[in-house]
Write a structure and sequence with these properties.
By secondary structure, the chain is α+β, with helices and mostly antiparallel strands. It contains 17 helices and 33 strands. The strands form 10 sheets. Strands 5-4-3-6-7 form a 5-stranded antiparallel sheet, with no helix packed on it. A 5-stranded antiparallel sheet has the order 10-9-8-11-12, covered by helices on one side. Strand 6 and strand 7 form a beta hairpin. The chain is globular, with a radius of gyration of 30 Å. Belongs to the RNR ribonuclease family. RNase R subfamily. One of its GO terms (molecular function) is RNA binding.
Length: 715
């Protein structure tokens, strides 16, 4: 068909599709309607396929052609640095691939309408963006580059893969190397990039602190508290007033301690413990978990409460904390500081020798912390039996030993029911006074951190079960059962190593995964299979329904223990306190039923934002650290394998890529089933969990990537 005729027919069909009276038709029906003979139907198909590719037509699963919006799917566009992207659509198991030339003006995070263009069996669906419904990026943070008469901004977020054009006179005087905030004024099109105006200069890329400040701005993390919050904070006393102590259970005589990291300033949990020996019966432990009564000071609907919900969580970056609540509260009256009377909400539990909570009470209390302990000091007592530390805290050594005893019982009880305990090392990045990383080391858990974990878990479970059976509107921390398909794939993969997973009608019990982790402990494949198991599970979130917690193998779980830094905890403290004071009226019940679903969604979303920001600052500083170590050699473990190479994690938690092009001894092919790269001639393999020796080859601090080259295999 001649090009001119082809274009003419396209225009005819486009006009037909736009006709309000048109209803979707199959190709045969269209041909009959337009009186096109059978011999020319292939030409009609070419015309319709071209309209689909251009996003001017859509096609249903039954092959009916119509306006694209009739068959459009809605989802969130996730960009890739190379220009293409994926769209996650509700109800679809797999994201839809969007080629680079079909993304339209969509940027990472935008809500878009797409049409499916290719749907071949066994292959990922391919689509085309036909409309952007909601913009995620009204402002973008990036690096300014100046040309003679204009400039452009390279976004920090590599998933926004299009530079933003800055017209002359719209740059606020920015120069090369400035980190800036740009407001997008025109999102452009498939062929034309976005345009914007510089609204703020954050600082030069080489200035100390500019890197993390840029990231704070990029994630929209709130820094300063608004004036109305600061005005409210002035009215809050520095000490607990006598009138506030009335009507509370007075626990000031109990030996009470906080146990936290050395740097912690917001101490929101304290513990007490005693042991009762009963004639002819197993002993009874009386554990008190005392949580700062933040809701006493942060009242519902107040400016501080609205700001806390807006933030939803404290964000812990490498060089700073962006708190949910102002420091006067989080480090002051709401921090359970030693030597001060404090208001608390306490979960007082009676626990038998098997680790079962056989009785409990939740009460508003008055406490007095005797000692502010660190994990290091408590571990020195209960694990190392360090004489100097034991002498310093001699009045509390017996209680710490008792805590270790009970924590071991609680942990064994959780393990018995199938609780899964992943023990991946987190990293601690040490900075100098100018914010430059001088050391990176894994932050290992010890006996003291486990004591606090075990006690907080017990309190969270106890509170969740209590309020579930009271049938009161509540917020739960849910970790739903894994997707059966993912578990099936995990089961097939671990068969390669001689392990099996038992399931019942496609469902798997957490005990099975726990048993797997126990079997692989200390084996060469431990790191590999632990990571794959974790990746096969769903992400925990906040819900109004009690969906249980798969990872902890419990039917009831909530977050009760950190109201200074997590909004869900603060929210349920209010519900608990209202219940203690006579129960919820019908009006208040309806109120919570109305607001809690939105609180659950928002806090889950902002928790993910905080996690991502924390990971990105860590990656940034790790790149900065490794930039000074190019040419150095390290031993590491393969932590990920893809078609373009494999990732290696070093003992200090730094991760880098060995690109497949650097494997020069053979031609390597990616085996997706076994997650390994295999040489065609040598049969040499690179697979997850394998030890390798690498050399640091290159670091891109802007893209936050580290490149390694292999030196030789270890063992």
């Amino acid at each position: 068909m001649e090009q001119e005729l082809f274009e003419q027919r396209k225009k005819t069909m486009e006009a037909l599709l736009k006709d309000p009276a048109y209803v979707p038709m199959k190709l045969k029906e269209l041909a009959i309607l337009l009186d096109i003979p059978k011999s020319q139907r292939d030409e009609l198909r070419e015309v319709m396929d071209a309209l689909v590719v251009e996003g001017k037509a859509g096609v249903s699963k039954k092959g009916k052609y119509g306006r694209p919006e009739l068959f459009a799917l809605t989802g969130i566009f996730c960009g890739h640095p190379k220009g293409f992207g994926f769209v996650a659509c509700e109800g679809m198991e797999q994201d839809v691939f969007i080629p680079a030339d079909k993304t339209g003006s969509a940027l990472h995070g935008d809500k878009v309408q797409i049409v499916i263009e290719e749907e071949a069996p066994g292959r990922r669906k391919e689509g085309c963006v036909i409309k952007v419904l909601e913009r995620a990026n009204k402002e973008v943070v990036g690096l300014y580059q100046k040309n003679k008469k204009f400039g452009f901004v390279i976004p920090d977020n590599v998933k926004i893969c299009r530079d933003i054009f800055i017209p002359q006179g719209k740059d606020m005087g920015a120069v090369n190397g400035h980190k800036v905030i740009v407001r997008i004024t025109d999102y452009g099109s498939q062929k034309r990039g976005p345009e914007g105006v510089v609204t703020e200069i954050i600082g030069h890329i080489n200035d100390p602190g500019t890197d993390i400040l840029s990231l704070v701005k990029a994630y929209g993390l709130p820094e300063e508290f608004p004036p109305e919050v600061m005005k409210q904070i002035q009215k809050i006393p520095d000490q607990v007033e006598e009138g506030e102590k009335a009507g509370r259970l007075d626990l000031r005589d109990l030996p009470t301690v906080t146990i936290d990291g050395e740097d912690a300033k917001d101490l929101d949990d304290a513990v007490t413990l005693s042991k009762e020996i009963r004639d002819g019966q197993e002993p009874l432990y009386h554990l008190g978990v005392h949580i700062a009564d933040v809701s006493h000071y942060v009242t519902e609907g107040s400016p501080m409460d609205k700001e806390a919900l807006k933030r939803s969580t404290s964000v812990y970056l490498v060089d700073r904390v962006i708190p949910m609540l102002p420091h006067k509260l989080s480090n002051g009256i709401c921090s359970l500081n030693a030597g001060e009377d404090r208001l608390a909400l306490s979960c007082l539990m009676d626990i038998d020798g098997k680790g079962r909570v056989i009785g409990h009470r939740i009460a508003e209390t008055l406490i007095h912390v005797d000692r502010r302990m660190t994990y290091t000091a408590v571990n020195a007592i209960v694990s190392d039996r360090d004489e100097k530390t034991m002498e310093e805290y001699r009045d509390f050594v017996a209680m710490f030993d008792l805590m270790k005893e009970l924590a071991d019982i609680l942990r064994a009880q959780r393990k018995k029911r199938g609780s899964i305990d992943f023990d991946f090392p987190e990293s601690k990045i040490i900075l100098d006074e100018k914010g430059r990383p001088i050391d990176i080391r894994p932050y290992e858990r010890n006996a003291a951190t486990k004591i606090i974990e075990d006690f907080m878990l017990a309190a969270n479970e106890t509170v969740a079960e209590d309020y579930f059976w009271q049938e009161i509107p509540f917020l739960y921390r849910s970790h739903e059962n894994p997707d059966p398909e993912k578990m099936k794939r995990l089961g097939l993969f671990i068969n390669n190593f001689g392990y099996t997973l038992k399931s019942h009608q496609g469902e798997i019990h957490p005990k099975e995964l726990q048993a797997l982790l126990t079997k692989i402990e200390g084996t060469p494949e431990e790191a590999l299979l632990s990571r794959l198991t974790l990746r096969s599970m769903k992400q925990a979130r906040y819900t109004t329904e009690n969906n249980g917690h798969f990872g902890l193998a419990t039917r009831y779980y909530t977050h009760f223990t950190s109201p200074i830094r997590r909004y869900p905890d603060l929210q349920i403290h209010r519900i608990i306190k209202e219940t203690i004071h006579g129960g919820l009226s019908d009006k208040r019940r309806r109120h919570y039923e109305k607001i809690l679903p939105d609180v659950a969604v928002q806090t889950s979303s902002l928790e993910r934002r905080a996690d991502e920001a924390e990971r990105e600052t860590d990656k940034m500083k790790k790149c900065e650290y490794m930039e000074k170590r190019i040419g150095e050699e390290y031993e590491g473990v393969i932590s990920g394998v893809t078609g373009w190479g494999f990732y290696v994690e070093l003992p200090n938690t730094v991760e880098g890529l060995v690109h497949v092009n650097e494997l020069r001894d053979d031609y390597y092919v990616f085996d997706e089933e076994r997650l390994e790269l295999k040489g065609e001639m040598t049969n040499r393999t690179y697979k997850l969990g394998q030890k390798v020796k690498i050399q640091v080859a290159a670091v891109d601090t802007f893209a936050r990537t580290i490149d390694f080259v292999p030196v030789r295999e270890v063992g």
